[in-house]
Amino acid sequence: MTQDNDDLDSLVRKRIRALRVAQGWSLEELATRAQVSQSTLSRIENGPRRLALDQLVTLARALDTSLDQLVETATDDVITSPTIDGAHGLMRWPIRADPGMSVVRRRMTNPPPDSPARMRAHPGREWLVVLSGTAILLLGNRRIRVETNQAAEFPTMLPHAIGAEGGPCEIMGIFDRDARRGHPRGDDA
């Protein structure tokens, strides 16, 4: 094996153990879930046993992860800088693991629209958290007050709009691909 393969092998072994420990499972519990012997699992985690693809698939399922996540290598570029849209008062960060998703930070000063005709509906889902201030989320026929550190998640096929209440508010939202397409110019949620 080359040095790179040895490094990946070691990384996968550490991930398996870390995922097992994070679940609070003993070797015996994971071995039962993965239908492998406890001694096999111990050898997989500790290195003397060769990693076999079929066992990694079984372990990934038992650990409620994917094989891709189990074997992915570390990336050098872990920092992402936002694109800034000053005209619409927002910053947007792409999510590398899912290019269709993006994170948006926006400062709002205007209240939500007073006309239902200005509410939007489009495919997708949105999640947002209020970082400061108070936001008003119009969702269908509902008017929902979202305060600092509260979050809201909703399907965007419901007519919706968001605005500030009683002064500026700042939100951070996560948009899936369809929801992002529904806000091409940085429009309010």
Overview of this protein structure:
The chain starts with a helix and ends in an 8-residue tail after the last helix. It is elongated, with a radius of gyration of 23 Å. 31% of the residues lie in helices and 28% in strands. It is of the alpha+beta class and 189 residues long. The longest helix is centred in the N-terminal third of the chain and has 21 residues, at 3-23. The chain has 6 helices and 9 strands. A hairpin with a 4-residue loop joins strand 1 and strand 2 (90-94). The strands form 2 sheets. Strands 1-2-3-9-4-7 form a 6-stranded antiparallel beta sheet. A 3-stranded antiparallel beta sheet has the order 6-5-8, with no helix packed on it. It has helices at 3-23, 27-34, 38-46, 53-62, 67-71, 177-181, and strands at 83-85, 90-94, 102-108, 125-132, 134-139, 142-147, 151-155, 160-164, 169-175.
Could you describe the largest sheet, including whether it forms a barrel?
6 strands, antiparallel
What Rg do the Cα atoms give?
Answer: 23 Å
Q: What ranges have pLDDT less than 50 throughout 5 or more consecutive residues?
A: none
Number of helices: 6
Oligomer: single chain
Mean pLDDT across the residues is: 84
Class by SSE composition: alpha+beta
Strand tally is 9
Major β-sheet strand ordering = 1-2-3-9-4-7
Distance between the termini: 52 Å
Strand content: 25-35%
H-E order = HHHHHEEEEEEEEEH
Shape: elongated
